[in-house]
Amino acid sequence: MKFKLIILIIAVLSINTGCEKKMERIFDENPTDRINASVSDAYSALQANKDGWLIKYFPSSNREFGGYTLFAKFTSATDVVMEGERNTSIASSMFTVYPGAGPILTFDIYNPVIHYYCLPASNGYLNIGAKESGMKGDFEFLVTKASSDSIVMEGRKSYNRIVMVPIKSSEVSTIVSSHRAAVAKFHPLGNYKFEVGTESIPATFATAATKRALLIAGNTTPYSYRYTPTGLDFYTEYDVKGIKFRELKYVEPTGAYTKGYFINDAGTIKLVPQS
């Protein structure tokens, strides 16, 4: 009996020792060191792609203003060059990554490309949204992933998911102009309806001034999207009459579709402009 008791005590002590060693390994790294390392990683990732990044930017937590495509090149640990689909010029400013709940990327020096979406409408700079809040965009972001294939962030104010994807060297000369051309082509379209099978569902703009988010009867959540060279890229996967979609590609005018239409890859849903 005593022998069994001794064996049991030894086993318990061994387990405790193993757990303590495991905990020591987990907590070897100081929390401050971990956050500083993540800040350093974010800095490195931002500057790693010398051709810059395409930013899928959605202001406002309700996303009623739709999405926009911005372009940024982080040329040093402090400097950034930006342009956008609505801008005809390049704007330089500064940025910082500082520690918070994780790495926080902030465009803390005014840059008209991104701060356009953050300013109150009452300053006369834009007349979209409420006077005191404008389009309610973010200029500070929590970096949740930083790698060579994408940088994923969360708006500090809107909590929207903002994704940056690297621009390829083969795209540098055309990517900005192709997105501006897409806006010029698709933005004038309107009076939309979804077609699912034999059903036709009218859609209205959540914000007429931006024309980048749609509402349908019985649904208060806007279907928010960006214009792209191939069509419409939505903020997330949406559902109309049981048909899910994330991207709709444009088809040039044909037959009864005098303004063309947007369709998913499966061909199960169309978004049809009638004017």
How does this model look, in words?
The chain has 275 residues and is α+β, with helices and mostly antiparallel strands. The chain folds into 2 domains: 33-173, Lipocalin, CATH 2.40.128.640; 179-273. The chain is built from 4 helices and 17 strands. It has helices at residues 2-26, 31-48, 112-115, 175-186, and strands spanning 53-57, 68-74, 79-84, 91-94, 96-99, 103-106, 140-146, 151-155, 161-166, 192-196, 199-205, 213-216, 223-228, 231-240, 243-251, 261-263, 270-273. The protein has a 9-stranded antiparallel sheet. The longest helix has 25 residues, at 2-26. It is globular and about 60 Å long. The N and C termini lie far apart (91 Å).
Task: Produce a short descriptive summary.
Helices cover 21% and strands 35% of the residues.
Structural class from helices and strands?
A: alpha+beta
- CA radius of gyration: 25 Å
The counted number of beta strands is 17
* H-E order: HHEEEEEEHEEEHEEEEEEEE
The strands making up the biggest β-sheet line up spatially as 4-3-2-1-9-8-7-6-5
CATH class of the largest domain: Mainly Beta
Beta-strand content bin:
25-35%
Major sheet attributes: 9 strands, antiparallel
